Amino acid sequence: GAVVSQHPSRVICKSGTSVKIECRSLDFQATTMFWYRQFPKQSLMLMATSNEGSKATYEQGVEKDKFLINHASLTLSTLTVTSAHPEDSSFYICSARVSQETQYFGPGTRLLVL
Amino acid sequence: SQQGEEDPQALSIQEGENATMNCSYKTSINNLQWYRQNSGRGLVHLILIRSNEREKHSGRLRVTLDTSKKSSSLLITASRAADTASYFCATLIGSARQLTFGSGTQLTVLP
Predict the structure, then answer these.
(1) Angle made by CA atoms B21, B46, B91, in degrees to the nearest 5
(2) Contact, A75 vs A18, CB < 8 A?
(3) What residues of A are in contact with residue B35 (Cβ under 8 Å)?
(4) Is the peptide bond before A40 cis (omega within 30 degrees of 0)?
C-alpha cells in the first residue's frame, strides 16, 4: 500500500527555536497533504491543508505565521514550527490524499519544547 | 472542531470478548471511516462505509451505519491483546475533503 513517511520521528528543542518536520509520500504523488496536531489522550485536530504549488489553507485558530507550511513538490510537504514554545509540544501527524475518499497517514512526529 | 463523539471513551475487555465502539456525527456524510492508532503512532485505515450502506464486514471487524441517527458502530469480534489501541471514526467534510475525527475510544484487551 501507499506509504507516507515523516522526519524526524521525535525532536527536542529549546524554547524560541524553529523546528521543521517533513512529510513525504514515498510511492505516489499527492497534490494535497494535511497536517494534524494531537495532544495526549485527545483526538487529531486538523491544522491546515497543504496544496502543492499554492498557499496552505489554515483552520480557524491556527496561526499561519507560526506554523509555516511549504508543499514545494508532489511528494513533500514541510511544517515549520517557528519560535517554538512549550505549549507547542505535541504529536504532529501528516497525511497525503490519494483519492477523494482516501488518505494515508505518516507515523507522526513527537515535538517536545523545553 | 471535532465532527462527533465516540463512546465509550475507554473500554477494557478480556481477550476473546467482543468490543463495540460507537460514533455519532453531526453533518450529512458521503462516507464514514474507522481508523486505529497504536500509542504514539500514526493512523491505520480500517474500513470505510458509504452512506448508502448499512453494514460492512472486514475480517473480525463489523461496521454499521445509521444515517437517520447519524451514528456508526465498530464491532471487533474475538478480540486479541494486539487489538489494544485507540479507535477513531472520521468523516469527510468540506470542499477540500478534509477528515474530521471523533473523540476516539481507547481499547485495552487484557490477555
Answers:
(1) 70
(2) no
(3) 105
(4) no
A17-31, A46-60, B28-42, B93-107: least confident range: B93-107
The residue whose grid cell reads 507515523 is: A107
Nearest-Cα residue of chain A relative to residue B42: A107
B81 phi and psi angles, rounded to 5 deg: -55, -35
B38 touches chain A (CB under 8 A): no
pLDDT at B94 exceeding the cut of 80: no
Q: Give pLDDT tens digits for A58-97.
A: 999 999 999 999 998 999 999 999 999 999 999 999 999 9
**Angstrom distance (rounded) from CA A11 to CA A110:** 6
List C-alpha distances in Å: B69 to A92, A93, B2, B28. Answer: 33, 31, 18, 11
